[in-house]
Amino acid sequence: MDERIERVFTEAYHDVAVQFERVFARLFPGGEGRLVLTDPGSMLTTGLDVEARPPGKKIKRLSLLSGGERSLVAVALLISIFTARPSPFYILDEVEAALDDANLGRLLVLLEELRDSSQLIVITHQKRTMEIADALYGVTMRGDGVTTVVSQRMTDVARPRPA
Q1: In sequence order, what are the residues at sequence separation of 6 or more whose Cβ sits closer than 8 angstroms to the Cβ of residue 109?
Q2: DSSP for 8-63?
Q3: For all residues of the chain together, what is the average pLDDT?
Q4: 56-63: long-range contacts (C-beta < 8 A, 24 or more apart)?
Q5: Reported pTM
C-alpha cells in the first residue's frame, strides 16, 4: 500500500511542480516559482515548500510577500493542481479579492482557459470576474427582509475580454 501511495504522490507532485512553474510565470511575468519537497528521500512524510520570486525580488518566504502576492501564489498553486489533475468542476470563493487590476486580468485569462475543460463556480464581488461568466446567480433582500435568488444567463450578452 505504501509503495502505491508513494508512486501516486510522486507522480502527482512532479506533474503539479511542472504546472506550477508554468502558471507562476504567467501570473508573475518575469518571476519564478517552484515547489520543493522538504524531505525528498521520504515521499511518505515529506513536506512541501512553495518558493516564490515575483519579478524584481529575491526568493522569499510566502509570509514576507504582500497580501496580493500571497493570494496570487496560492491561486497559482490551485490552478497548477487543477491543470495537473483535472476535475469536472471547481468552486472558488473570492480567490481574487486581494488582487489589483493587472493581476486580476492575468488570473481571468487563466480562468477562461480552465473553463474550457471544467465548470467553474466562482463566488465573487469583482465586476471583471462577473463579466466573463456564462451565468450569474445572486441573492437580494427586499425591504421587508425576504431574500430572493436572482439569475441571469449571459449567453446572449456581449462580454468584454479580460485585459
Answers
A1: 26, 162
A2: HHHHHHHHHHHHHHHHHHHHSTT-EEEEEES-TT-TTT--EEEEEE-TTS--B-GG
A3: 90
A4: 56/30, 57/31, 59/32
A5: 0.83
